[in-house]
Design a protein that fits this description.
The structure holds 2 protein chains of 2 kinds. Chain A contains 11 helices and 8 strands. Chain A is α/β, with parallel strands linked by helices. Chain A has a single domain, classed as Alpha-Beta Barrel (TIM Barrel), CATH 3.20.20.70. Chain A has an 8-stranded parallel beta sheet. Chain A starts with 12 loop residues before the first strand and ends with a helix. The longest helix of chain B is centred in the first third of the chain and has 17 residues, at 18-34. The N and C termini of chain B lie far apart (51 Å). Chain B folds into 2 domains: 15-48 and 87-201, 3-Layer(aba) Sandwich (Rossmann fold), CATH 3.40.50; 53-84 and 206-389, Rossmann fold (3-Layer(aba) Sandwich), CATH 3.40.50. Chain B has helices spanning 18-34, 38-51, 62-68, 87-100, 114-125, 136-141, 143-151, 166-179, 197-205, 207-220, 235-241, 270-273, 311-318, 329-343, 349-361, 383-389; strands at residues 7-8, 11-15, 58-60, 72-77, 105-110, 129-135, 155-159, 184-186, 226-231, 251-259, 275-279, 281-286, 322-328, 370-375. Chain B has 16 helices and 14 strands. In chain B, helix 5 links the parallel strand 5 (105-110) and strand 6 (129-135). The chains are: A alpha/beta, B alpha/beta. Chain A binds chain B through residues 49-51, 53-54, 56, 60, 67, 72-74, 96-103, 123-129, 131-132, 147-153, 155, 159, 170, 173-175, and chain B through 1-5, 13-23, 161-162, 167-168, 170-171, 174-175, 178-181, 275-281, 283, 286, 288, 290-294.
Chain lengths: 256, 396
Amino acid sequence: MSNIAKAFDHGKAFIPFITCGDPDLETTAAAVRAAVENGADLVELGIPFSDPSAEGPVIQAASLRALTGGVTTDKIFDLVRDLRRDVTVPMVFMTYANVVFSYGAERFIRTCQEIGIDGLILPDIPYEEKEEFLEICHQYGVDLVSLIAPTSQNRIASIAQEAEGFIYIVSSLGVTGTRSEITTDLGSIVAVIRENTKIPCAVGFGISNPQQARQMAEVSDGAIVGSAIMKIIGEYGREAPAHVGKYVRAMSDALK
Amino acid sequence: MSKSRGRFGIHGGQYIPETLMNAVIELEEAYNHYKEDPEFNRELTALLNEYAGRPSRLYFAEKLTRELGGAKIYLKREDLNHTGAHKINNVLGQALLAKKMGKTRLIAETGAGQHGVATATAAALMDMECVVFMGEEDTRRQALNVYRMRLLGATVIPVTTGTATLKDAVNECMREWTRRIDDTHYCLGSVMGPHPFPTIVRDFQAVISREIKAQILEKEGRLPDAVLACVGGGSNAIGSFYHFIEDKEVRLIGCEAAGRGADTFETAATMNVGRVGIFHGMKSYFCQDEYGQIAPVYSISAGLDYPGVGPEHAWLHDIGRAEYVPVTDDEAVNAFEYLSRTEGIIPAIESAHAVAYAQKLAPQMRKDQILVITISGRGDKDCAAIARYRGEDLHE
């Protein structure tokens, strides 16, 4: 069984996303620890990409700040080595295919295993293209997380049958970022997922407040929040970790 | 990689968010249906001939030939098409297809503005809504085209993210398409992006080489020795090459924008300086750093200022079927002026890259050899920018 399953062992999971290196890696490390101390069950670490075409303005800006600050894939691997001295919750990388491909997919994924990264989320690798990365992921015991979108329809069953770790359900059309309401019929998407797999599923995109998180977790196994956290980091910079901790506590409590 | 579709060797594929997958599958199914549909083909041919002015001329450039003193040079005059460039060939095809699919809204990226103008034109003709994304930097370089698009009823959205050029306009189009997919077709302007776009755009642009072949056989009774075209994403080049790929004796030469030089950081010569990567829905060559971050690229030409190249070109490069040569800003500007004075034809600055390489190649060829240069667009849009490049304070 993959480590990721442990995040869903004790009730609904709260999954924060943090762009590594915004504004610097010390702040990222402190923010991750604050999130974990305040109830994060799994942490998504974003490796920034120059052209994040699935992201809304908040994470675009965070990625740009991180890259401008000089963060690189190797420095982020070092960050994870440091975090793994005390952080035990599952951690996954979220980045774009070219970051992995350009580093050398095998070298990248082997390093994930070495440093204790449990999974990989690549929003520009759909079901049809995953095999190129999947074989290597299997070899090194890293889960390649599948995404399901409101437009997936007849694709849901096939994606779910082959999914690993957890399924990332995209709550609504469009890019990442907070939304005032989410109107997708997630219940019927989750029903098809449940018919086809036992692995957990969590909802992301557009969630920012405890009420939304609770709603999403009612129909699934957890809630993923990225833009709302990166907005806090964008606002408070190096002072952000304490604010992130407080926010994660409120969100996490709403799910328990 | 058994499930992966739309490959050219190792290149191509569909590297896009799950949200868009059903849309590209639906597009592929519709395209496969309509490309065999006689009624669709009748309508498209009528539009290309009656509205866009095809077939375009294959013009024997006698003065140019004499001055360069080598191969006989023919110009494929895509600049004479309605809207002034080859872009209309693809846009009429895609807009008609989108209309048949029940879409009511077109979105498009544009660099130099030629694809945006063509899309706005087709949208006006076919009563569709049109939104064009254009890098803010490019809206300044190509202010006239921004006005043309608005005149045609399109909304132009300046893109301020990243380098505010063509690649960022593509990013913004992808984001917009994930936001609004039901009524919207992404009318991609080059042979790039996820499958089926590289194939669809190539098929719609292949009319260029189909005509060149028939015209040169008519005029010369034989195939040309070389075909030259400029390459950004590569749509006019693949259109010019396609029907010659099996004719191994025809050299196919793509001219890339080297900016201030392929050995500088201010370049867009992807095939010469890039590495294989995954971006904008495809695997191909990209200008990128050691960590896979897409590099800022530079060219005087807004239409070639792109860090990638279409996957079919990447494959033609890999198998050695086509050559890709770098041409600098200086060489292109000289060629822009040279063709204007020699033949009275002002080429787009993009097309001037191909003319520049012909200036080097033609003199090395024998007088009984034949060289075809595709003039992908006309240069009116570039006059102010070239004047500024030469230090003249000309503003539109």
